[in-house]
User: What shape does this take?
Amino acid sequence: MANSVVLVGFPGCGKTAVGKALHENYGWSWVDVDEWVVDEVGRSIAELIRVDGEQNFREIESRGIARAIESGFDVISVGGGALGQQVNRELLKTSSNMVHLKLGPEEAAKRVFEDEQRALSEKGGVQRPLLALDENGKPFAGDTIDAMQQRVEVLMRKRAEIYQLADFAVDAETQSADEIAAVIVEKFPRG
Assistant: This one.
């Protein structure tokens, strides 16, 4: 069996949407590690980080990535910061085809800002705590798209080198999830 395709990239780049497109349009088996973590711990990632800390979340996330690889899923969506952990980088580099869904900081900030505003108004909480919460775990007060873009640019600079470890990169800014899925199927065909 071919190696799993692992979708990596900045929050908001479409890892979940592309994973769903590969599953629904091409029948690829798929798991979203963030969703696995939520199911495993029974609470949101934001709450897990707020209560137990980011390091605890990263350890659970690493277990989820290892289980997904062991299970042989065709496609695995991992969190935007998953490659920040050396254990994940080593495992994914040796046992998968990593695909970086590339997104510029302006578009990433727009997508994340809209997602967070929607999550705050609909659910009363945040989706991406490392971008939407301050160091005390509280939503940034009076947040603006400009403030979000500044946080995105800082985090993107920190992660730029690890995303370069991907085996393949695809533009996630101008292509739909279905278009990206088609590119991935062509590059990494199954069976």
Observations:
- The first strand starts at residue 4 and ends at 8.
- The CA atoms of residues 100 and 169 lie 5 Å apart.
- The chain is about 60% helix and 10% strand.
- The mean pLDDT is 86.
